[in-house]
Amino acid sequence: MCPTVPAQVDYRLTYAGASLTHLVEALADWPLTHRAVITEAHDAYDRRRPDHDIR
What we know:
mainly alpha, elongated
């Protein structure tokens, strides 16, 4: 804890937690990279099932 008012706490990932950051970033980036393909898949699904009420 740092001697400030109000009190401040600094947090850091452990080595094990930090070793996962590249995987979490890859999972976050994947849908951004594949946005067009995902949108087309959603649209194709909706066209094949026009009476389906889940959108």
